[in-house]
Amino acid sequence: MRAFADLLDRLSLTSSRNTKLVLVRDYLAATPDPDRGWALAALTGDLSFDAAKPAFIRKAVEERMDPILFRWSYDYVGDLAEAVALVWPARPGANREPELSEVVDALRGATRAEVQRLIEGWLDALEPTGRWALLKLMTGGLRIGVSARMAKQALADMGKVEVAEIEEVWHALHPPYEDLFAWLEGRSDRPSAVAPGRFRPVMLAQAIDEEVDFGKLDPADYAAEWKWDGIRVQAVCEGGVRRLYTRTGDDISQSFPDVVERLDFDGALDGELVVLRDGRIGAFSELQQRLNRKTADAKLIAAYPAGIRAYDLLSDRGEDTRTLPFNLRRKRLEAFVTPLIAYNIDLSPLAEFATWEELAALRATPPDGDAQVAEGVMLKRWDSIYEAGRPKGPWFKWKRDPFLIDAVLMYAQRGHGKRSSFYSDYTFGVWTQDELGARVLTPVGKAYFGFTDEELKGIDKYVRDNTIERFGPVRSVRAEPHHGLVFEVAFEGLQKSTRHKSGVAMRFPRISRIRWDKPPGEADELPTLQRMLD
Amino acid sequence: MIKPESLLCPRPAGLYCPPGDFYIDPTRPVDRAVITHGHSDHARAGHGAVLATPQTLAIMAERYGAEFAGATEAGPYGQTAERNGVEVTLVPAGHVLGSAQAVVRWKGLTIVASGDYKRRRDPTCAAFEPVPCDVFITEATFGLPVFRHPPDHEEIARLLKSVAQFPERSHLIGAYALGKAQRVIKLLREAGWERAIYVHGALERLNRLYQDHGVDLGPLAPATSNTKADFAGEIIIAPPSALQDRWSRRFPDPIGAFASGWMRVRARARQRGVELPLVISDHADWDELTSTIDELRPGELWITHGREEALARWSELHGVKARALALVGYEDEDDD
């Protein structure tokens, strides 16, 4: 338990992806079975308990200490699990610290009343970090900023294999994954991937470099499709098991019952999850109403009906089609996804073109219909097999040009990790009129990348030299018509927002250029942005 | 028996002794002062006469120059000085080098003004000595039950594990210049770290002073001496404020660590962007505060600075009369 607690402790305090990968990798390499398997399951979200409700934990601690001293402590710390972990008045003579696997085993066989007694005994035996980790695990939700995908990447780093190889077998395995570790440590063969309804690791596209790539590529070798503005999903139905997965293999079947109930086929589709009404795609902001929710009620489904626009076929009635070239897979897909399959599953059409100039024209002025709301186009080599990961060459994405505006730097915040000595997170604004008709800046977005390290040094110096006020890690920066710093900001789309004072929210904003030359007074105005609303 | 308030009472300049006519750790210049230890909020320059341990006098001279007071009197541990019939004895407090409790005796009454103290072992200073007393004056910097400092060697072991785990990065430790920095260095030596430890310029004079007083800190080097790549795998110690300063950019992708009792609370670490909190403090934690009160069982407990209300409540619940003195002007040295 101690090693697992130390791991969670460090993960919770670092924002660097590479650091997290090293921490998890080293933990998995150094910890024996079955503890590491349970820890891995906890990180990937495949192990969680709701064994202890916050009210129980609070009651348990207040039985042991003065409730007023506890309340002052909780007020100071602000987090129940952490406050209890720190103040817990351990009874002397406690047992040795439990291992993670002992905790898991005990909980699986215990009744609710027994669970509470067990937890108290463990809290007595553990030190504060161990208690904190235990309580986080018991109350569900580690919230330490590690995704399932990242945990699998660390596992791949540990075993020196590609993460796709792990994803291939993941859904056929169960915690504590002893067979998986045996394979990664070279003690056995790779475990079998055969499990009905399993996830298949997805193939991803490279961004095309217009300057370089088109000169080398022959348009006759490629098919083009529209790049839809939804989320990538994999829909599987095998042997009666139906699953909907995200591109990283998270199972989101529960959130989309309206899609899952229509998976009346035997195979695995790759496609885009979108809001779909009578064959027309809704805005991404509509789909967002359905994302990050555990379930969906009838009202939500009626308001934002979900569907799949399919563009690849990974399995067809028991046959693995991923080794077929794209042209053959496409034929199989067209036969598979017919109007009969379901009202909310349709086929993503190909865009016809003969030369790169023709494709450029299509991308710039898409035909009427859904293509108008596409994010750009995808290029897929006719002869490419379906290869997990992001191989260079077979698939490209060519996104629509981003929106660009000129905005004025208003606030800067310290970064994290290796950027902690730099003001690297920027809030910028455009001009509008206040109630009295005066021209003022209103914040429209925040960005923390898009610039080089050299440029960051320059902006950091500018922020320090032009600070008006400080609030903790944030500085407000001089922003006046004749004195201030202008950023050219690129973003993918703009949505109405009631949460932002300006009434707009950007998708994927980043700094595209630093306009040292431009007077802030000439930056854009809010009405310009309002015309860009999706 | 005389009332304790007639021997020591709070005044705007600090804790005052009317019969002896002296202050303990006054926060503004006074004629006669007793100084418990060298941290700048307790030891200020400009007093008429100062009584302190020889080590504390040396620290004050190092910080403020030889002319920091009109006159000085060295009071070695255990030796009694007299002020108008009031006896003052300095006894180790275990806080930093030279730190002392002021034991004040007059007409059969004993008050111990403990200054800042801790109870656990510290290889850089003498250990706290409990003195039976009628009134014990305690600090309460970490006077909440959440502050429970783990064993030092566990914290140092976590640091060394991280150094081994990230050999291409440097570890930059924020530690207060007087006491904490030298203690962290000494603890690293005890844990077997024999390489040169790189130190910020602001620590150099006090490091030398500690070494002159017999605390062997091993090989130290200025943090300006290497090129960036050479700091990979090295440990650097700097005042806490330098952690997020532009000064830190000279190191390769540093992991920010901070040695302080405040690091026990995750939100405090997060707020400061500390990746590797080291819960190492020169102040008593909750368990040390409460066990000291239990051990001494004074007639009265007076609480100076920190979280007085929680410690006062605990004392009352355990049958020791407590009052907060509401002295102003003291802060924890790490809480900047």
Q: pLDDT under 50 segments of chain A (min length 5)?
A: none
**Separation of the first and last Cα atoms of chain A:** 50 Å
Q: Kindly identify the CATH topology of the largest domain in chain B.
A: Metallo-beta-lactamase, Chain A
Describe the global form of chain B. globular
CATH fold label of the domain at 206-397 in chain A: D-amino Acid Aminotransferase, Chain A, domain 1
Mean pLDDT of chain A, nearest integer? Answer: 91
Q: What would you call the quaternary organization?
A: heterodimer
Content-based structural category of chain A: alpha+beta
Share in helix of chain A: 25-40%
Name of the level-1 CATH class of the domain at 206-397 in chain A: Alpha Beta
Widest sheet: strand ordering of chain B: 7-8-9-10-11-18-19
Name of the CATH superfamily of the domain at 206-397 in chain A: DNA ligase/mRNA capping enzyme
The second-level CATH architecture of the domain at 206-397 in chain A is 2-Layer Sandwich
Report the sheet with the most strands of chain B, covering strand number, pairing sense and barrel closure. Answer: 7 strands, mixed
Report the radius of gyration of chain B as a whole number of Å: 20 Å
Task: Write the CATH homologous superfamily of the largest domain in chain B.
Answer: Ribonuclease Z/Hydroxyacylglutathione hydrolase-like
Q: Specify Rg of chain A, calculated over alpha carbons.
A: 27 Å
State the domain count of chain B.
2
State the distance separating the first and last CA atoms of chain B. 43 Å
Keywords:
heterodimer, A: 534 residues, alpha+beta, D-amino Acid Aminotransferase, Chain A, domain 1, seven-stranded mixed beta sheet, seven-stranded antiparallel beta sheet, 20 helices, globular, B: alpha/beta, Metallo-beta-lactamase, Chain A, Rossmann fold, 7 helices
How would you describe the overall organization of this protein?
The complex is a heterodimer of chains A (about 525) and B (about 325). Chain A has about 525 residues and is of the alpha+beta class. Among the domains of chain A are: about 205-395, D-amino Acid Aminotransferase, Chain A, domain 1 (2-Layer Sandwich); about 405-530, Beta Barrel (OB fold (Dihydrolipoamide Acetyltransferase, E2P)), CATH 2.40.50. In chain A, about 35% of the residues lie in helices and about 25% in strands. Chain A has 20 helices and 21 strands. In chain A, helix 1 (about 1-10) packs antiparallel against helix 2 (about 15-30), helix 2 packs across helix 10 and helix 6 runs antiparallel to helix 9. The longest helix of chain A has 14 residues, at about 15-30. By secondary structure, chain B is of the alpha/beta class. Chain B folds into 2 domains: about 5-145 and about 285-325, Metallo-beta-lactamase, Chain A (4-Layer Sandwich), CATH 3.60.15.10; about 150-280, Rossmann fold (3-Layer(aba) Sandwich), CATH 3.40.50. In chain B, about 20% of the residues lie in helices and about 25% in strands. Chain B has helices at about 55-65, 150-165, 180-190, 205-210, 265-270, 285-295, 310-315, and strands at about 10, 15, 20-25, 30-35, 45-50, 70-75, 80-85, 85-90, 100-105, 110-115, 135-140, 170-175, 195-200, 220, 235-240, 255-260, 275-280, 300-305, 320-325.
